[in-house]
Amino acid sequence: MRTKRATFVISTIAVLALTGCSSGNGTGREATGQGDGVAPAKNDIAAQIAAATSKPVVINVFENSATYTQEQFMELYGSKIQKKYPNLSFKLYSANKNNGGGSISELIAQGVPIDLVKVSGASFYSLMADNKLENDVSDLIKLYGYDLNKLYPAVLDQMKMFGSKGEIYGIPNATVSTALFYNKDIFDQFGVSYPKDGMTWDEVYDLATKLTRQDGSRQYMGFQEGYGHLFPVNQLSQGYIDTKTNKATLNNDTWKKIIDNFARFHLINGNAFVPSYVDPFWKDGNVAMVAAQSAGTWDFANTTTINWDLVELPRFKEAPKAGPGLQLPFYAIASTSKNRDQAFLAAAYIGSEEFQKDFAKLGYVPPIKIDNLMDVLGKDVPKLAGKNLKAAVPLEFAAAPYPFNSYFSQVPGFLNTAYTSVVAGEKDVNTALREAEEAANKKIQEVLESKK
Question: Any signal peptide, and if so, which residues (predicted)?
Fold first, then answer.
């Protein structure tokens, strides 16, 4: 979990889990019945993989970050892929111009043939669609008989949302969601029972009122939240935009319910909203509970000194079975790729059970179903031992994804501003949401006009 980094925008989408792999530059495709709906036999797949990986190939990877490095990519992904396919090597291009990188449009203009692009939600549109880099890999999925039953239903649903006809553009490398973290020492200090899985927000509100108190010169806060994490994967599956009209969908009863739910916590005397919960919770130990991003990296576990654990994100009483949605970062295969099969194989291996089992040991939650996941999740992170990590895996009960399109990214910032104005007491929720929707629609219209 990257608690000290910028929030995730909705990372919806993704793809697929794979047990096998891809082709070898077309080798043997005529013999395997491409286009007739018949998947090749396993032996044919193995032969095609061997052919595709028989010669050295350099795969160009783009990461839209100025700080991400070649070394980081190789440590997490590249070196592991090379153990599987020794002839594949990788060149990372980042947004950092000082080390030969730049924006993806600049690299394309320079003639760099990008093969793989790391995207997450809205960045699919800004990086892939806006640069005409989309590349549907449905043919490879069909040809090589990938087991889509390995995907969780919520992942499969999101996987299909980027294409108007269910196209699939890449392979997810992990899933990220939200959970409720709590400081055991504060609960112990005030004799309050720990949170439990399956609680409602009303029950957590009651806990927050008991734990917001002054003790000597120290003010304890019962609850804080990472709203930028929570809203994009909200449990009520409320979207930001009407994809048919390109109008923002902020001024409605569902967003009002969501905002009212969190804003009420900050009406508790002594539990004022703080812009960032990170230091107050993980460093200072002044916050009893935090609703925030779960899974991803768990770097904070190695630095925090508080005695913490986590439970499932509490439910709305109106939707008692709906957990939070999923964010799905994934590697998309670019239309500029000169090594389409090999790039697909690399991404597919990241999404394979073999890779994901090892990845799960580092605390990353896999996008595919893995037998006995809880036996391996976080196993290689000593400070996660004994933690309730299943609370970070809302895969079986994840909220259904909502529709979005290329204009989605224009909207979340206006909702976040509306929320902060409400919790600061500057505006009532109705006014804040109405003005946010109006401002978002104006921004969307400006973008639409700029494309004419």
Answer: 1-24
